[in-house]
Amino acid sequence: TRLDVLLHASGHCSLYADMLRGASMDDSKTVTIGPLPTILQVLREMSGEPQALEFLKAGEDEGRLEFYGEDGDLLVPSLDLAPLCEAVGHAGKVEALTISVPVNSDSFNKGLGIVLEASPEVRPPDAEGDDGDVYTYNG
């Protein structure tokens, strides 16, 4: 369907690239991005018109989503982080990355949260000795 094509291509939307180009890195080499545009904002930007998703709708506050499903939904597609790397100027090792994805749901924690899949070149914090926060939920 047209919506499936839009969802598949959504990771290349200029809204994401612009947001990633706005990344900043502080003195502790922590890079902060976000808030990310919602998938509904991205689909509207790409198609020129609002798109309806079965279990997601825009929330009352700008940039917020309301989720009515039980099994999760696509909030953010796979992203090319090249604009982020350019923004921080490849200034050495990035120690931490903070991502803000606002979502509101009445599904009692089913489907909440985000799943991040890093490139094989990204090393997660070690179980011992590293103080990086790592969370796994419903994944």
Cα gyration radius (Å) = 16 Å
Helix content: 10-25%
Beta strands, count: 6
Secondary-structure-derived class: alpha/beta
Order of helices and strands: HHEEHEEHEE
Poorly predicted runs of 5 or more residues: none
Figure out the total of helices: 4
Q: What is the CA-CA span between the terminal residues?
A: 27 Å
- Biggest sheet strand line-up: 1-2-5
Principal-axis shape equals globular
What portion of the residues fall into strands of 2 or more residues? 5-15%
Mean pLDDT: 75
What are the defining features of this structure?
globular, 139 residues, three-stranded mixed β-sheet, single chain
Describe this structure in words.
The chain is α/β, with parallel strands linked by helices. Helices cover 22% and strands 13% of the residues. It has four helices and six strands; from the N terminus they run H-H-E-E-H-E-E-H-E-E. It has helices at residues 2-9, 14-21, 39-47, 82-87; strands spanning 24-25, 30-33, 56-58, 65-67, 96-99, 104-105. The strands form two sheets. The chain has a three-stranded mixed sheet with strand order 1-2-5, with no helix packed on it. Strands 3-4-6 form a three-stranded mixed sheet, with no helix packed on it. Strand 3 (56-58) and strand 4 (65-67) form a beta hairpin. The longest helix has 9 residues, at 39-47. It is globular and about 40 Å long.
